[in-house]
Amino acid sequence: KKKKNVNRGKAEKDRQAVSVGVVIDSFEEFLKTGNKELSRFHKSVISSQREFAPYIGNKAINQITREDITDWINTKEDLSDKSKKDARSHLQRLWKWAAGENLVSTINGLTAAERVAQIKVAKSDSIRFLSADELEILMKNIPKDYLPWLVMAAFSGLRSEEIHARTLKEKKPLDWSQVDIEQGHIDLHA
Fold first, then answer.
1. How far apart are CA 117 and CA 20, in angstroms?
2. Which residues, in sequence order, are CB contacts of 49 under 8 Å at separation 6+?
3. How far apart are alpha carbons 11 and 168 in whole angstroms?
4. Distance between CA atoms of 159 and 180, rounded to whole angstroms?
5. What angle do CA 91, 92, 93 make, to 5 degrees?
6. What letter does residue 110 receive in the DSSP assignment?
7. Distances from the Cα of 10 to the Cαs of 24, 62, 161, in angstroms?
8. How does DSSP classify residue 142?
9. Each residue's pLDDT tens digit, 87-143
10. CB count, 10 Å around CB of 190?
11. What gap in Å lies between CA 176 and CA 137, rounded to an integer?
12. Contacts by residues 152-160 (CB-CB < 8 Å, ≥ 24 positions apart)
């Protein structure tokens, strides 16, 4: 019985007051282990987590409640339900990792982030395809310079960041020399 109390005391001591920002930095380093940089998905996860840090301030991660997390998600009025669901999931990843590092406690095996109510995504919030009529309206009204982009996005399966990357850190954009207008095809290389 005495050993159990000693172990509990050590666990409490290990759960020192570490800020969310510090935990995010450690989690990012953990994700980078063996890699030069984070995958695009992991960059998105870390970015979402970093949005939470200023909201919560210097509060230690082990003092943050599910209500704190729920309140933050509810402040994201400009986000779709799908984006809110993703933000919840990104924080859950952080808390689950922090629990493994003994930085947060669990209740019945669940961290504070894992106890946040699920966010239901409405069918209208899911990705949909343009109808032929919608595409026709766009093609008739888009500036001529943007027509090739619209056509490629609509018919080639290329994503907008693959057609033209917004930043240098994103996926390498399409090399326009790969577009053979006369032959009517695009040669996509790895």
1. 21
2. 20, 24, 27, 90, 91, 94
3. 44
4. 19
5. 90
6. B
7. 23, 15, 49
8. S
9. 999 999 999 999 999 999 999 999 999 999 998 887 665 667 788 898 999 989 988
10. 2
11. 26
12. 152/179, 152/186, 154/130, 156/186, 158/186, 158/188
Q: Pick the residue with more confidence: 131 or 159?
A: 131
Which residues pair with residue 185 across a beta bridge?
180
Q: Which residue has the tokens 């450690």?
A: 26
Q: What is the pLDDT of residue 12?
A: 53
Q: pLDDT tens, 3-32? A: 554 455 555 555 568 899 999 999 999 998
What does pTM read for this prediction? 0.61
Sign, CA dihedral 49-55-57-62, equals negative
Cβ–Cβ under 8 Å, residues 92 and 73 = no
The tokens for 13 are 């001591």
Give the angle subtended at the CA of 42 by the CAs of 77 and 157, to the nearest 5°. Answer: 80
